[in-house]
Every structure is written in C-alpha cells, then in structure tokens.
Specification:
five-stranded mixed sheet, 17 strands, alpha+beta, Rossmann fold, 17 helices
Length: 449
C-alpha cells in the first residue's frame, strides 16, 4: 500500500490553521463590505478559451489544464501534433488562474442584470502550475475586490484606504503600498526606443526584486536593447515617497509625451484624494505587474519587517471585458494573497489567541443517564452564544478532562450520580483549577466567557 500524500504546492489545513485563516478572511470581508462591495463566486474551472491570452505567455504556461473525459485520442494521429497543438483536442477546460478574468466573463454574461458601477468581492482558491517554493504555492486563495463600469480615480483612492484599514485590523504595521502607472512604463520604454518589446520588458523589470539589477540588465540586453537605452529604462526604476515633489521630478524626465502626461495626471488626481505624503505609500518605477490586461495605475503591497514577496497587488484594466465582446467597461481591483498574509502573521505572531478557541464549555457525563441530563442544558447555552460540547460517551473523568485541556476549553461541567439526584452540576474552571457545586439552572450566572 502506497503512503498517502498530496500534490506538491498544496497543503492540508488543520483546525487551528483554519481558525486563523478564517480570521484573515472575515477581517478582509468586513472591510470590503464597509466600502459597499458585494459577494460573488465563480466556478473553479473555466473554459480554456476564457483563460488563455489574458495573462501573457508566462501566465498561459502556468495554467492547469483539465484532461477531457472519454477516449479523446482515438481519432487523432499523434505524430502530426506537438504538445501545444494537441492541447485543444485533449483539454477544453482549465483551473482558474485568478479571479479577475472570471469576473470579466461573468459581467459580460450578466451585463443586463448588473447595475454599473459593479462592485464585487470574491474570496476563493486559484491554481497555478508554478514551481513550489517557500511562500509560493500551486493552490492558494485570493481575496479580490473590483469595481467595473467607472474610470473614476476615487476607486484607486478607496483601495489605498482599504489597504490601511485591513492592515490596521490585522495589526500589520510595517508595510509599503507601492504604486506605478502602466502608461508611465510605456512612455519610458518608448523613450528607450524599445516599444516593440513592451510586454517582454514589463515581465523582466517585474522580476527586479528576484534577480536584481544585474539580472534585469542582462535579460534586457538579451532582447537586443542597447546599454544607453537600458540606462533610460533604469532611470525610472527607483522608489520614492508618493508626493507632489516625486511627480514633478518624473515630469521633468519627459518632454511632449502624451503617455507620461496621462499617467502623471492620474497620479496627481489620486494624490489629491488621499492627501500629500499618504502613509506607507511609495511611487515605485520598477513595479510592472506583468499581466497583460493592466492599463493604468497599478499597486503592490510588500511587508517590510521580513523578507517576503507581495501580499497584495492590483491595478486598472480598461477593456478586459472587451476580450469577451463588451467594450468600454473600465475596471480596477486589488487582490490579497491570504496564504502569504497567513505566513506573515504567523511569523510575526500577530494572531489573537482566541482565534484557536473552539469550545467554551464541555459537559462531562460520568454515566449514560448524564448525557440526556446535559442535552437541554447544552442547547440552552448554545442559544446564548456559548460554544458548548457534550462528551459523546460516559467515560472516566480524567479522559474527559484531558480532552478538554487539549482543546483549551475553559469550563468543564461534570455530571455524576449525585449531581443527577440533586439537579446540580460540578462546574470547574480548567484554567485556574477552581470548582463549585451549583444548581444546573444557575450555570449562566457562573461562567465568564
């Protein structure tokens, strides 16, 4: 018999871990709701025609494809096809790569039922056929919020405010919200005489944190870009405080560039909404967000207390729905990566202790008659919001108390022969070891949850 295992890049989550993850999810969800976002869910799998061509070449290579059922190779001459050409014949569906493209598909399919601007949040797993490593998984959760149907930069300002609220509630104090603009990248690459390589260059410079300046220079050189033009690109690849002075400094680098003027006007408008020198917000010229669909302001958030990749990102996409036949719908959104957020909070020990507290009180019946005696009491406590269990069989008290201690249960309500005769309960505080014999109807007056 083979040893049980799970695929690399996936994980099981124990009850304690799930409690912490749900704490993160509920915190983000509550903040989204305070900004007027509505919930949405879409299927785990989408048609490959929906997914391909939306994420760039690298993204397409990371799509998990689902094998068609049936004898799909019966009428195919395999010698006539390479692996890429064979794919449409053996796979019509794939696991979703992110939640944004499925959102665009949903909006197009339901456009007559939607009121615009459409504000939705979505919290579901996504899958990427990536090489598993620390803080990088093949299956992970994203917590998205998007607004479709408006080009107002108030949305970008709201997302900055959402970041601040979420991190404040999670007690994450050391982080950077990095902002850039895709049109500013376009203007820079145009200035470097390399517009034909725009997609390739954005993918390369987006890896600056991973491969360093020398690695980026080397890959740009391999594209055939001259050193002087690489220097032009690098002139933007720096990080500054996001304020009016930074925007003015960038403006001096461009002359008669419509792309740069549009980008800087957007950044100026966002700054006017969030206030000059907003907390923890930086302009980062190296931020590229390699996905093809971004067209405007882009965001990324990284922790600064430990070395880790981004814990959130997003940006504006002006015509993603156009890929499905609905033009003129501008959208903007952000996504939290719950798995990295969990790793960050675990390393910094930021989870409240009560998040792993599942039961407040355990009834401990010492014989079978005690189980029936405890049932109505337990149900009454549950109606009052007290998390209550009854040990499911009459057992020795040591076994039951060991169970309670392992689950970190504060109260044990012990019911033996004497308690049954006198309508009483022996109530024990397992944290301090004190106990008292009380009338069963007075239990709510004694416990302090």
């Amino acid at each position: 018999m083979s040893k049980p295992s799970i695929p690399k890049g996936t994980r099981d989550f124990s009850p304690n871990i799930m409690a912490k993850r749900k704490f993160i999810l509920s915190t983000i969800e509550n903040v989204y709701q305070t900004f007027g976002f509505m919930p949405l869910e879409t299927p785990a799998m989408e048609n490959l025609t929906t997914l391909t061509g939306k994420y760039g070449n690298e993204g397409d290579q990371l799509l998990f494809k689902i094998l068609n059922s049936g004898d799909f190779l019966n009428d195919i001459d395999l010698s006539q096809y390479d692996s890429k050409k064979l794919t449409p014949y053996i796979s019509e569906k794939g696991l979703r790569y992110d939640l944004t493209v499925p959102l665009a598909r949903f909006v197009v399919m339901n456009q007559h039922l939607i009121n615009f601007p459409f504000k939705r949040y979505q919290m579901q797993p996504v899958w990427r056929a990536d090489r598993p490593q620390k803080n990088r998984y093949r299956e992970f959760w994203q917590c998205d919020a998007d607004v479709l149907g408006t080009s107002s930069l108030l949305c970008e300002a709201d997302f900055i405010a959402i970041y601040h609220q979420v991190f404040s509630k999670l007690q994450i104090n050391e982080y950077e919200i990095r902002i850039n603009h895709r049109k500013l990248l376009e203007a820079t690459i145009e200035k470097a005489n390399a517009s034909q390589y725009f997609k390739e260059i954005t993918v390369i410079i987006d890896k600056l944190d991973k491969i360093g300046p020398d690695g980026v220079r080397n890959e740009l050189s391999q594209l055939g870009i001259f050193d002087t033009d690489i220097n032009t690109i690098f002139s933007l690849l720096n990080k500054k405080v996001f304020n009016q002075q930074t925007i003015q400094d960038i403006e001096k680098s461009f002359q008669n560039s419509e792309l740069a003027n549009q980008a800087l006007a957007d950044l100026n408008n966002i700054l006017s909404l969030v206030g000059d020198k907003p907390q923890n917000v930086f302009f980062d010229g190296s931020l590229a967000r390699g996905l093809d669909y971004y067209t405007g302001c882009i965001f990324e958030v990284v922790p600064t207390s430990i070395k880790m990749g981004s814990i959130s990102g997003g940006g504006r996409y002006d015509n993603l729905t156009g890929m499905f036949g609905l033009n003129g719908i501008s959208g903007v959104g952000i996504s939290f990566g719950i798995d990295r957020l969990y790793d960050l909070m675990e390393e910094l020990q930021l989870f409240p202790e009560q998040q792993t507290h599942f039961t407040d009180l355990l009834f401990c019946p010492l014989d079978e008659a005690g189980i029936s005696y405890c049932m109505p009491l337990a149900n009454d406590l549950r109606k009052q919001g007290i998390k209550t269990e009854i040990y499911p069989q009459a057992s020795k008290i040591k076994k039951q108390l060991d169970y309670a201690n392992q689950k970190q249960i504060k109260w044990a309500a012990i019911v033996g022969e004497n308690e049954l005769k006198n309508n009483q309960i022996m109530l024990k505080n397992l944290l301090v070891g004190e106990q008292a014999l009380i009338n069963k109807m007075d239990i709510l007056n004694f416990i302090n949850i």
